[in-house]
Amino acid sequence: ASLGAGGSAQVFRGSWHGQEVAIKKITGVGHLEEMKKEISALRRLRHQRLVRFIGACLQPPQLLVVTEFMPGGSLHNRIFGPLREQRLAPERQWAIALHIAEGLAFLHARRVVHRDLKSLNILLDARGDAKICDFGLAHEMETTYIARKVDGEGGSPRYMAPECYDASHGRLTEKVDVWALGCILIEVFAGVLPYADCATMAQLSARILVERRPPEAPPGMAPPVAGLVQRCVCFEAGGRPAAADVEYELARLSCLFAAPNPRVGRV
């Protein structure tokens, strides 16, 4: 059964040695290098907050990646799809936010930058626990920053930090993921898209490059969370916290605002 499609990829639900799996099928050999990079990252990076890699086939025209099946679908679909009227319970909001920060802190500790972090690339398991997926743009930092690409940086505009748009805003580092994390926290805790009032790429570019305005934390968001979001989307990359610091702060705040032990999923 098809689980969805996007860009050059289709994702199907299947079975492998008795377990349910997700099978990502890529069309076009032009994506072979991107797939190799994703598979390399998935093989090396094993963590409870990352979607588990099972296997792959890289014999054109068969380009397949097999990962664990995540029955909860994407976080984006949970917040903005058919279930959007059923808002995430507060304890689920805290758990999901903490799971994402935990996974991101793990990646950064291994000097890996995801570069396409967004709610579509956060999947939920049967308990509603969150895991990071899609490592096609992931990059290992050999120095303290990432070399820029001649043909653009890729990624998803609504979640991209200013330095991804314009080199004058600084070098590309792991802090591009922290900006994206701040955008996702807006979605998790407020149920709205970052830059929700921007409908076109032109509006989005003007907001970031001309007006120099980060995405805003909506008024209904708890002040401590809004403050954390604002730090994550600081225009100057050096002013953003490390992912591990965001994880620590979310864990601390969750003790004040959520039910006990938000790291544990709930049916």
From TrEMBL:
GO terms for molecular function: ATP binding; protein serine/threonine kinase activity. InterPro entries: Kinase-like_dom_sf, Prot_kinase_dom, Protein_kinase_ATP_BS, Ser-Thr/Tyr_kinase_cat_dom, Ser/Thr_kinase_AS, Ser/Thr_Kinases-Pseudokinases. The keyword Protein biosynthesis does not apply. ATP binds at K25. Residues 1-251 form the Protein kinase domain. PROSITE patterns: PROTEIN_KINASE_ATP, PROTEIN_KINASE_DOM, PROTEIN_KINASE_ST. It holds the Pfam family PK_Tyr_Ser-Thr. It comes from the Eukaryota. Keywords: ATP-binding, Kinase, Nucleotide-binding, Serine/threonine-protein kinase, Transferase. PANTHER family: SERINE/THREONINE-PROTEIN KINASE TNNI3K-RELATED. Belongs to the protein kinase superfamily. This is Protein kinase domain-containing protein. The lineage of its organism: Eukaryota, Sar, Alveolata, Dinophyceae, Peridiniales.
